[in-house]
Batch of 4 targets.
Target 1
Amino acid sequence: MMFIKRLITQGIIMLGVFVVAILAIIGVDLIIACVIGGGISFGGIVFGCIKLRCPFCHAGIPIQGFFIEYCPMCGEKI
Ligand SMILES: [Zn+2]
């Protein structure tokens, strides 16, 4: 389950980067593109910070990486 939440988080962050690229390509001002894309990516990070938590000690689980099976704080299997 943690794997899926991390995948969603990384997906939203990637979407933000993707949106910046698309908007830049279609001629939107780069600053506006960065604000919109950055906002999406930031939303992904916030989502990750809220959802990627150890169910035992409630420590934040790193967004990076794919197969983190054990909590880095308490060592419980997540
Ligand atoms: Zn923990």
Note: DSSP finds two helices and no strands in the chain.
Target 2
Amino acid sequence: MSKKVVIVGAGPSGLLLAHYLLQRGENYQINIYERRSDPRIISFSKSRTFPISLNERGMSALRQIECLEAAIKAVSVEMTGTVFHQKNGKSRITSRQKPLVTLDRTNLVIVLLERLAQKYNKSRLDIYFDCQCQAVNFKNKTVNFKNIAVENNPDFTVNYDLLVGADGANSVVRAGFLEIENFVCEQKYYPTDYKSIFLDEQVNSSTELKSDNIHTWRLNDGTLMVALFQADGTMSGAINFPSEKNQIVGLSSTQEVLSFFRENFPEIGAMMTESAAKDFLDRPIAKILTVRCSQYHHGDSVLIIGDAAHAVSSSIGQGCNAALEWRISSGDRPPQFRYKCSSL
Ligand SMILES: Cc1cc2nc3c(=O)[nH]c(=O)nc-3n(C[C@H](O)[C@H](O)[C@H](O)COP(=O)(O)OP(=O)(O)OC[C@H]3O[C@@H](n4cnc5c(N)ncnc54)[C@H](O)[C@@H]3O)c2cc1C
């Protein structure tokens, strides 16, 4: 009989895990529960997304699933280096031997979802959106969710044979581990916050910014702006800045945003429209939580993966690569996560 696997979180790590398990044949019936709405049917939400760079660590994990690498590359841009822009208008370039594959997190998730939907029907895979995990009960092997798309947010409970927490740095599944003896988890807010930036218009072809390079600007107060071209010809990125004493919190109007970018990141400021500046102003500041745990499984029925198990600062550009880089087959254990969940 197949095992019922409940995966909490339809981010990169949860969705790739579903691909791996389903590829093994009929052994698993997978149910994925995701707090957000289905990104394939809602209009692109810019509130919690940003460009991700994938190197060989992440790409080699994606490559194990048939056609996935090609589908991801079709919506990505390959970056052959990084341009470090300086205040005096000069710049320095470092080249990469192997290009990075860059795309928006939401587009990565959409490709993973589309490939799952094309390959597996409801008898093997069900994905429930707008379902927020509330609590876990490891003893009874149940998970409680609330449906946030329905009025009054009704609760419901599901049972599982195997539970996987792929629900990111603020994992509710991981919170269930706190009752386990000797479980140690270190959670720290990183001292920088960030805001995503989207330059809506397709970038004018006269721009001197190289489309196959990541562009960065650093200010004396530690603020770091990273921007890159997307496959649709627009540019997007993120600005990281010190949580304390920064110039971003004080921006209070569209004009102030435009002036800030034109003064500090002139190449970006020149491309920023009033509407992109307004969106930037309205977008909430996001905090970065880093996580380290003493173990990633509970008995042989619960596992945490990806950012839920180990989250690092976004400035390293490795979180998603690490979240994807694991193997579930017994002969090829992940180097950084010693999963001991014998049922998987
Ligand atoms: C600005 C920025 C830039 C980054 N750049 C890079 C980069 O260049 N390269 C790189 O490798 N990494 C990068 N990262 C890190 C990368 O985004 C994460 O490591 C990666 O997304 C982790 O994937 P995940 O699936 O484990 O978690 P997540 O992507 O966080 O996905 C978790 C999913 O679970 C859902 N969820 C959360 N709570 C619940 C709940 N209670 N119930 C149901 N669902 C829930 C969430 O909605 C989400 O869809 C960056 C991060 C940031 C913030």
Note: Residues 29 and 124 are 5 Å apart (CA to CA).
Target 3
Amino acid sequence: MDTKVVLSLENITKRYPGVLALNKVSMNFLEGEVHALLGENGAGKSTLIKAVAGAIDIDSGRISINGQEYEKITPSLSRSLGIEVIYQEFNLVPTLSCAENIYLCEKSEKSALFNAKDIEKKAANVLDQFGVKIDPQRMVQDLSIAEQQIIEIAKAVSKNVKILIMDEPSAPLSVSEVEMMFKIINQLKEKGVTVIYISHRLEEVFRISDRVSVMRDGSYVTTKNTKDTSRQELITLMVGRELKETYPKRKNLPGDVALEVKNLTGNGDRNLSFSVRKGEILGISGLVGAGRTELAQLLFGAAPIESGEILINGKITKIRSPLDAIHHKIGLLTEDRKGQGLFLEMPIKWNISFPIGQRISKYGVVNTKKEDEIATKYKERINIKTPSLLQQVVNLSGGNQQKVVLAKALAAESDILIFDEPTRGIDVGAKQEIYHLMTELADNGITILMISSDMEELLGMSDRIIVLCEGELAGEVQKENFNQHFILDLASGTH
Ligand SMILES: Nc1ncnc2c1ncn2[C@@H]1O[C@H](COP(=O)(O)OP(=O)(O)OP(=O)(O)O)[C@@H](O)[C@H]1O
Ligand SMILES: [Mg+2]
């Protein structure tokens, strides 16, 4: 194996108010390797790569690229050295087309040569590699989160990249898109590109990486050859203690039908019919673009229904707006935490209690003690890592932001909860807690619809799974018939 060090980090330290985000971190990255970077939410992974990309200034430490030490890394220096970063938070320009986003830099560099048709053709070629049909002329703001992520990847790999840093690239993708991405990563690797790969999906680490490094609480823990370690060992290294991964046992059987959908059509979905019981967890599977999020929007009144019916507790119910949905005690946890899920500039506490403002207020004044109680409960239960509940959400790590979205949905005490990718970007330990919380809710008669691209989680948590394909119901699978291949076949329409 090639052992040329292309990126060397020495004693990198970065402090934020109340948080030592990086504590003397030292690490080496080799030419042509896929190097996975693991750690719990808030461990410092994104901060470390931002330092390499020149997106933040470090307090102390040394960064060398190709043997050359640099006093200060700026974004343009980092890019000129062939470092491309796919950030955890998207960095696309919403009001430009896909093609323009992919070739944005070229456009500004050689504006005289810039040719719309040309970049559209180039973009179409890059997108073709993913086997995803995205029209390069479409505006990025009209794309789903998964499609945006594919544009991000296309943008990075279309450059002359030497070190590709991917911060949770797979989070919004489902199985088949991840496969495409792995193919592209392997092609890059053959060309000698170094890939730094951050993910909370451990099975991916074993699929794609040569080495894996673990961080904990801002500190470097260790680096292993991937083939010499195990899932359990990595979890223990990340969490700092033994952690058993199990899906909680359910106490109660599902009861009466809580939600029934008959021939529901709209928002790109057609003729969907299914029902969910009280205390049942219904998994919703499908590939990117299958219409899962679109279904959630229909049920939550966030998109107009063209035809068909929704019945709640046996009664035909008109849901024309999210307010209607909330009135009928339907809650939605959206997949897009940045766009719809959170008020980023507001404190954590405020975000969690916002939807229940009325319930915890008297004469229009919020009972701050109640507000604190609720926020503190979830902070502790799902381990939101922050020095204070007054912290602005924007300053939290990606996974901790997702925990706030989740806390907000849980605190609302809905009867029917729709979760769209609830554990996306959440670390293994917190995932276990969330699974327990969901199980408790179901045992207490709450109805849960869970859209998830994480197949393990879908199989582990659902009582039943429905599969969507191109906006239609492709099948319904009972627990005794759960099988990953069968579900994937249904999802890809090959069954
Ligand atoms: N701008 C900021 N202001 C204050 N604190 C910050 C800021 N950016 C990061 N932090 C804190 O630094 C720590 C490390 O965050 P970082 O985003 O690097 O974590 P991470 O390992 O990427 O986690 P995740 O898996 O959730 O994405 C966290 O405690 C986070 O709250
Ligand atoms: Mg991060």
Note: The mean pLDDT is 89.
Target 4
Amino acid sequence: MSNLTDKLQNITKLKSGIQRLTLTDFRNYKNLRINAEIAPIIITGENGSGKTNILEAVSFLTPGRGLRSAKLSDIKRIRNFDEDENILAGDAWSVAADIMKNDEEFTIGTALQKVTREDTEDEGLHSIDRRIVKINQQKISQQAELGKYISAIWITPQMDRLFLGGPQPRRSFLDRLVYAFDLEHAKRTANYEHLYRQWLQLIKSGCQDNNWLKSIETDMAALGVAIAAARREQIARLNTFIQNEPDDVFPDVRLELAGTTEQMLDKEPAIKVEDFYIENLQKQRQNILYNDNVDGIHRTDFKVFFKKKNMPAELCSTGEQKALLVSIILAQTKCQILDKGFAPILLLDEVTTHLDIQKRDALLTKIKDLNLQAWITSTEPQTFKVLQNNAQFFRIDNGQLSE
Ligand SMILES: Nc1ncnc2c1ncn2[C@@H]1O[C@H](COP(=O)(O)OP(=O)(O)OP(=O)(O)O)[C@@H](O)[C@H]1O
Ligand SMILES: [Mg+2]
């Protein structure tokens, strides 16, 4: 057994994952309860039966807006026309889970809560949606806290086009990879985005208050440089891991960051880059009246290459692009196990699409060998022959689950 396999198994012999999952008024589920094993969990069913909804529910046990980046209010179950009108659809939704982290048991609950607030402008009462989170029945104020108990990594069908379109989804993907190692990163990116919007709005509305603008620019620069540094660290971590532990089936990737701030950090100390960032924002104040092309970490791109072919991912074939994505996720998973000391949950929605049979079976076998919990969906039950005796199989028909 290789050294790496040894190290991974030493950690994953302690179980981490969900033991019991309960959904209430979540998407197409009025009430669903699943007793899950720490193993590959295969969910098959027709289109629209509710497979992705289950994975989305699991993703809500981690910080953020889930694997569909959905609006909280869209998740609340919409009642069917043929349903008894006396059954209330409820005003909120919830996901609850009994989880294990390295054999230790916890409970996590999350739900939509409607909060009524008075609006100072029109003096009316407004209801806003908020997600509340509880760990062991205790309400927590920071979602990032969840990251200490549970972590999830996902691949969704939308990501089949990750390398093709504009940089925004790639940047978000990279930032999610960073969150797992740096729980503050999510807060930093959210704060940065908030400041950036505020700054744009102030300038466009003709604000002349130099001190106010300067204080926002200073905060943006400090956050921006911290975000860029964390992204660089994550890219370096994954590149080094892939260099040292190349996969035998999935292609080696080379990862790069294309962003002025990230590149400047190669040569200059952070404090100098921060000064430059402030100066640059000041200089660009005038320009944004004509266009929104302000340079900064909100424009960074995440570049992926098929290393051996020296081919940018966007020029690779569809199946190759999927294989590159799998390579990144496998490396991230292993790095996370080693660094954080517990296994993440994998959420793999239609992951086998575009992979040839060799790669498909290799991926499923690798997941099984990682000894962690992976929720895997497909419309085709035959896809999973290699896991016949090593996985938990569920079938969904129209929101009804059977094992
Ligand atoms: N808020 C909601 N209330 C009730 N049903 C919803 C809600 N949001 C989505 N749905 C429905 O849930 C059903 C299942 O969706 P889901 O995405 O889980 O299907 P799926 O099994 O993954 O299908 P596919 O194989 O096409 O990916 C869909 O019919 C969808 O319209
Ligand atoms: Mg689906």
Note: The chain has two domains: 1-160+341-403, 164-315.
